[in-house]
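Summary for the steering committee. The consortium agreed at its last meeting that each partner would contribute one worked example illustrating the joint modelling workflow. Our contribution is presented below. We chose a case with several input lines so that the handling of multiple components could be demonstrated. No manual editing was applied between input and output; the record is shown as generated.
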Amino acid sequence: MENRRVVVTGIGSISALGKTVGETWKNVVDCNSGIAPITTTDMSNIRFKKGAQVKEYDPLNYFTEKETDLIDRFAQFGVIAAREAVQDCGIEWTDKLKDSTCVIMGTSIGGQETTEASFYSLFKENKNRVNLFTIPRIMPNAAASHITMQFGITGFAYTISTACASSNHAIGNAFWMVRSGMCDMAVTGGSETPLNFGFLKAWEALRVVDPENCRPFSKDRQGMVLGEGGAVLILETLEAALQRGAEIHAEIVGFGMSSDATHITKPDQKGPEKAMRMALNDASLSSDKIDYINAHGTGTLANDSLETAAIKAVFGDHSKKLAVSSTKSLHGHVLGGTSAIEAVITASALKYQVYPPTANYTVPDPECDLDVVPNKSRQGKMNYAMSNSFAFGGLNAVLVFKKWDGG
Amino acid sequence: MEEEIYNKVVALIAANNHISPETITIDSSFEDLAMDSLDGLTLINDLENEYNITLPNEEAVKIKTVRQAVNSLNKIITQQ
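What follows is the complete predicted structure of the assembly.
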């Protein structure tokens, strides 16, 4: 079967940048970072204080009390983003479509908030029983499962867990599934809620969290800033989208992945290079066509210089012409949900022809000497954009998007 | 104090990495001892627990040898 063209017709997002795509995109364009002191966790014994937390979030604005008993915060964010994306795409569900739609979500740790609360009651409060809903709240596939139930989707559904690349792997898999004809529509993305005491202490131990702010590509960067949230994209064939007159945000044209096979946390240059090359090859695109890269750009010393070197190796002289920004400086590092938020931002960048900025940029680093769109978004022509994700464990996933120009 | 810190560093490296203390000297680099970045940070975290001190991240990630570990610890403890 010939490959089908795949387009994004719905997007939804909830993060520190806002509880809708509209709020999110406005804050990207205005370079308003969502990073602020964490208030949902007692931070007094943690060396860093900031995170990218969803502001003024009340689950009862979205779910009944009974539902919040059953659904952990990470899955709530997945469902909220899916609702927005489904509404945005304007689909009218039929039994046939529900049966040929897949749900593929990403998360790194699943219901971490529930894990900590339930086991605290055992270890610290000496209780003999945990909350009955502990397992269904913790399980990493909970977001995908609740999305299927929300819309009655009966096609295949699963969750991918590849740390910080989880949702790029999820979206890439969904793209291939729709392209190949394995399904007709995909609800795909990811969500994460890592701002819990035990988990924050675990990140503190690794010493990769910047105690001040997330400053990707800046010489004085000291690490990432963790964030929470989720995002979902609706993918369908171009033919179906045109037939029903759907609004198209962007087209997905390529996906590549690789594994470093070197170290469990230390990144390697070859793996990211391979994933970027594979994504370009999958899109049948020469590297000089890419105008913008939404970088993995964590803000760690190791990642940003290594990603710069990998981009130079893949793009050669063209690396001096393209723009590369890290929107993690705005929405934080949402781990398994981060690539989905970045995919929403990248699709919007193509739609509105705006280059998203790298916020909090301070001092140039000779080892990160790319055009990082510092501190201010930029209007400009953009036909193709790439979105990078390189995870702990050396698992890399790269997507290539194309501006929808009606042809 | 410096000798006590040295002995503690050697004991922790030996225990954490399952190697004999005799193979460790003040001149050993973590690389010599087949310790990677995570092994190095584990040592620093253990030393922080042992002496109830805190090393800033930017200082902790620079420690790549036994001598650097001993000197950094000694400096912080004597300043207290």
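The two ends of chain A are 21 Å apart (CA to CA). Chain A has a mean pLDDT of 97.
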